C-alpha cells in the first residue's frame, strides 16, 4: 500500500496544475530510467509471422523476421504485424519492428504537442516521449486501432474509432447519411444514428402522400453497409440504429429484426445457407446494424403504473396514437428474446449526465453504445491494462495509475490537434468539444487474481473505485490542460452544466462504500482527484467535454495480452495459447494460481487445483478448494457462470464514473424467459445504466455451430413467453420433426472383420461391420463367458454404440470420448499398432480409429500405426538436426548486428512452453471459444472470423478473433 506515495503524488499533481497555468506542462519521470532509452531495457527477438486459415490451412499472411520483445506473446505479435505494420509486405517500405510502429505514433504526438504549446520545454517533451514509449512497449495501455493504422503515415490522420451521425426529415439528409456512413465503414470504423426525426409511416408528406417511415430507409442503409463489407473490408460494417420510444413507428421498429429472424429460419429449413457469412444470408435485411430503443423516464413510469403512453408525430409533436406501455415493453423483451435486438438506451439518464446540453441533446451512440455525445461527433479511445498495476503483494499501484492516466489523456488530447475526420461536420464538432474516451481492460482478471468474485460487493467496490480514479484524474488533467491551451470552444455556453456534471461525479465517488482494502485506498484517491479537478476547473474550465468510456478493447486487448476485455469477467478458466514456431497448447489462466495464492492456499494445493481445472475446465470438486471460494472463479461461460443480474450490477457500480457508457452485452442462458429479459431491462433503468443489451444463447439462427433444431425447439417450449399464434406453434413442431435424426440400418449382408485382442491379460474379440459404401455401422464385443455380467455389459454397450453410429454419430466423436479412459484391465496388448492401452475401451476405439478413420482425422486425434510413428520419429530427427544447423548459421550471420545474441537464443527456446499448467489443446479448437466448447460440451454461437475462419469470442457487444485480431465492430 502506497500511503505516503499517494500524498506526494497529490502534491505533485497540484504543483503540475500550477505550473501548467504558467505555460506548458512539466512532465515527471514515472516508468522510465534516467539515461536509458526504453528500448534498451528489454530483450528483443526476431520472429516469423505466418497466419493461416484455421479451416483449410491456406496461408493468408506471411512476414518473416519481425522484431518484438521476448515478453510479447505470439498472439500479440501476430496481431500487431498483420493489423498495424504499414507498407506493402515484401517491400523496403514495410515496417518490421515494434520499435518502428511505436516511434511512428509517439513521435507524431510529441511533435504535435511541441507545436501546439503543450509542454513547458523540449526536455519535458522528450520525457513525455519516453514515458509514452515505455508504457506502450510494456503493454501498460494501447491507443485504439485507427491510431495504429493511420498516425504517422501518408494516409489521413484519423484517430477516432467511434462516430455519431445525424439525419433530418429530408431526402437530402437521408442520402447524406448513406454517404457518410459508407465513408466511415470504408475506413474500418463504425457509426450510430438516431432516426427519430424522420416522420413516421403514419404521417403525410407535403405532396399529400404517406411517408415511408424510418424503417424503410433502414433497409437502404443496411444494404449499403452489407455491400461495403462484402467489397473487401476485413470485418463487418459496424453500425447502430436508434429510434425513440415515442415514435409512431416504434412497434414496427421493435419487430424488424425478429421478423427477419423468422425469415432466416424459413430459408434455413428450405435448405439455404443461412449461417453468418453464408452465401444466402445476404438476402435477409437489417443484419448489419445493432438496433436500440431510446426509452424515456416518462415511458418507464407508464410501464411501472400500467398506463398508456402517447406516440407523437414528428411534424407537430402531437400524440397521434396511444399504446399500452406494459405491452410495448414486453414486445421489446420478446423481440430481444427472439434475436437479441433491440437493446435499450435510457434517454433521461444519458442526458442528465450530459456536459453540453446548451449545444444539443445526446440522441445517439456509436455501434457498441459506449460513446454517447453530440450528433456529428467522434471520439478517440485508449485503454489501460489494469493487471500492470497489481502489485505482487496484492496491492494496487495507485500513484503510477494516476500518473499513467495523466500521460494518456494528454496524448489523446494532443491527437485532436492534428487529426483528420471523415466529414467536415464531424471535424468541426470534435474540434469544438474534444471528446476523449480513456478506459481499461482486464478488470475481470484483476478481481480474480485478487481473490475477489466478479459478482460481489467487494469486486464491485474495487471496480468502482478504479473507474472513479481514472475519470477523476482524466478530468483533473483536462482542467490543467485548459490552463495551458484553453478550454474547449463550446465550454463557455455550457459551463454551468459541465460543472454540475463534475459535481455529480464527485458526489457519486464520495458515496462509494469500500468493501476491500484496495477499494478503500482507491476511493480516497478518487475523492482527492475530483476535488482537485473541481478546484482547477472552476478557474480554467476543462479542455474536454468528455473524458472516459468503457470500450470492448477487442483487438487492442489482444495486443496488450489481456486475459479479459473491457469490463468483462474471464471468459473461462482455460484458454488457447499459440506457440512460437507454430502449434498451440491449452493452459489454465495464470490469474487462477495467483488467485489461489491470494486466498491463502499452499503451493501443493494450488498445483492440485490447477491440474483439476486443466482436466475439467472448472473448479467444481477441485481437491482442497473451499466451496465458499468457488465464486472467485465464476466466468462468463462454462460450468459456473455469473448471473445476468451480476453483470448488470457491475455495470451499475461503475456507470457513475464514466463520461460515456459501457460496451457490454449481458449474456443470458438459452432457457431464459421473456419475463426475465423484461426484468433485466427494467433493472438497467432502476440501477442508472445508460444502455443495456442482452443476448440469449442460441437465439440467432445465422451463427455457425449453433444448437440443433431439436434443442432450440425444446428451449422455446420451456419459456414462459406470451402464447404464440397456432400457426407459429405448428411451425416450431415441424422443425423438431424435420431435424430428428434418421436411422440408417445396415443391409442384411454386410462386410465385417473380427480382431482378437488382449489387454493386460484380458482377452476378447471385436467384430466391426461396415456399410457397403464404406463407413462403420455396427460393433460387437465379446469378452468372458456367455451369461456373465461382463458379457452382458459388453453386449449392451455394443448395441448402444451401433445404434448411435446408425443414427449418424461420427466415429471420431466416440474415439475422442473413449480413448484415454482409464480402468482395469489395462497395460500391454498384443496389437503392434497399439502397444499400451489405458483400458479395454481405450484399446477398442484406437483399433476402430486405425481401421476406419482417414489418416488426417487420426493425426488430429494423435492415433497412428506403428509404421506411421516410426516415420514420424525419423522425420522429427531430421527436422531437429536441420533446425540446429539453421540456428548456428543464423547466430553466425547475425553476430556483427547490434541485436543481442540472447534474443536469438530466446527465439530458439521460445517453443519450449513456460512453466505453467498445460496440456496439448484439443485438435478441434482454434480459439478460446472453441476450446471452451470442447471442455464443456456446449456450442457457443459466436461467428467465425471472416479473415481467418477461427471462431471469435465476445468483447463487449462485439466479437474479436484471437487468431488475427479482426473484430465485428469497434476497435
Protein model, in words:
- One of its GO terms (biological process) is DNA biosynthetic process.
- Residues 1-20 are annotated as: Disordered.
- GO terms for molecular function: cobalamin binding; cobalt ion binding; nucleotide binding; ribonucleoside-diphosphate reductase activity, thioredoxin disulfide as acceptor.
- Residues 49-139 form the Ribonucleotide reductase class II vitamin B12-dependent N-terminal domain.
- The chain has 971 residues and is an alpha/beta fold.
- Among the domains are: 3-159 and 378-559, no CATH class; 166-352, Alpha-Beta Barrel (Anaerobic Ribonucleotide-triphosphate Reductase Large Chain), CATH 3.20.70; 752-868, no CATH class.
- The strands form seven sheets. Strands 3, 4, 5, 6, 7, 10, 11, 12, 15 and 16 form a ten-stranded mixed beta sheet that branches.
- The longest helix is centred in the middle third of the chain and has 29 residues, at 457-485.
- It is globular, with a radius of gyration of 30 Å.
How is the biggest beta sheet arranged? 10 strands, mixed
Mean pLDDT: 85
Q: How much helix, percentage-wise, in residues?
A: 40-55%
- Portion of residues in beta strands equals 5-15%
Number of strands: 24
Unreliable runs, pLDDT <50, ≥5 residues?
1-22, 230-235, 703-738, 894-916
**Intertermini distance:** 34 Å
Class inferred from helices and paired strands: alpha/beta
Radius of gyration: 30 Å
Number of DSSP helices?
31
The gross shape turns out to be globular
